[in-house]
Amino acid sequence: MKKWTVALLSAILVLGITACGNDKGATGTTTDNKPAATETQQKPAAALPTAEELITKTVEAGKTSKNFAMEGTIKQNIIVGEGDQKQEQKVDISLKSEITKDPMHLYQEMKMSLAGQEQNMKQYIAKEGMFVEVEGAWVKLPKEAEAELLAQVQGQISPEQQFEAFRAAAKDMKVAEEGDQYVMNAELSGDGMKEMVKKVMSQSASGKDPQMVAMIEQMNIKSVKLSFAVNKETFLPTKSDMVMDLTMEEGGQKMSLLMDMKSTFSKHNEIGEIKVPQEVIDSAKQQ
């Protein structure tokens, strides 16, 4: 089960970072319906943009994004069975990240609850190197590990590329207006969703891993509910929600997964230089 859990987390976390955004001004307020006082005050209601139009504008807006902050939660319920034996495992993850794109630097805090145990982790990726803290102890990763990890993270923070992958679902998305945001909603399933997952995964190094590709092929995606909120003025996303229900089978084992992932994006172009504190550098052990 551990192998499946780790592989699924790798696949699903890539889907979580579909865009970076700025939630300033996205207050979600609505106005009451009131009769217009005069004819000159009346304004025709603007037609809602299509999902295709929103995706295009979001991709273009994302290219101007130099840095952003993201917070997210992931709740998973995994059931693995073989014959009459079944094992259930719940995984809860919370993430807080600050990311700059060029150069690609990252500070991230993660809390994970797995099999009744909790683990806290902090991570820096900066010019000083890659540092990871687990349960209070800092470790500096070796140079040979940096290239592979950097390639994986780099693919995950290319929102304009990843958002393009969701263009295939544009025809199934419904656009609504909520205060200062446009919200795109869709319910997907089957091979179409699998192809979209493969496109998103291809943006990262893990998506080229034969084992990961094989796992995606084995997935029977029963349903996926997607919801993206985009600021009406900047066309930068403010949040991304996804609920996925899937099953798969490998080596006689059957697995079902129900996953609920929510992400919010803020501080667009407001993040300063990400540097590893000197005390972290001094205390870190070489791996």
Write the layout of secondary structure elements.
Elements: H1 2-16, H2 51-62, E1 67-82, E2 85-100, E3 105-114, E4 117-126, E5 129-134, E6 137-140, H3 143-156, H4 159-165, E7 174-178, E8 181-188, H5 190-201, H6 210-218, E9 220-231, E10 237-250, E11 253-266, H7 278-283, E12 285-286
Parallel strand pairs: 6-12
Antiparallel strand pairs: 1-2, 1-11, 2-3, 3-4, 4-5, 5-6, 7-8, 8-9, 9-10, 10-11
Helix pairs in contact: 2-4, 4-5
Task: Kindly describe this structure.
The protein is about 25% helix and about 40% strand. It has a twelve-stranded mixed sheet. It has helices spanning about 1-15, 50-60, 145-155, 160-165, 190-200, 210-220, 280-285; strands at about 65-80, 85-100, 105-115, 115-125, 130-135, 135-140, 175-180, 180-190, 220-230, 235-250, 255-265, 285. It has one domain (about 1-25, about 45-285): outer membrane lipoprotein receptor (LolB), chain A. This is Lipoprotein.
